[in-house]
Write a sequence for this structure.
């Protein structure tokens, strides 16, 4: 029984770790390209992400 609970908890942790937001996620449609260090989204807007586009 303890193994089942442990496996379930580890599975949930792995799922939430991969669900992190990325620049231009959601309605923005993903990343189109970089403009300097900024991400340009597929809808034409500039992402407000603090990550650097390389």
């Amino acid at each position: 029984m303890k193994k089942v609970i442990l496996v379930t908890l580890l599975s949930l942790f792995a799922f939430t770790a991969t669900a992190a937001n990325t620049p231009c996620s959601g309605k923005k449609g993903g990343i189109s390209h970089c403009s300097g260090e900024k991400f340009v989204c597929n809808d034409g807007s500039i992402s407000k992400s603090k990550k650097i586009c390389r």
Notes: The chain has a mean pLDDT of 80. Strands lie at 31-35, 38-41. The chain is about 30% helix and 15% strand.
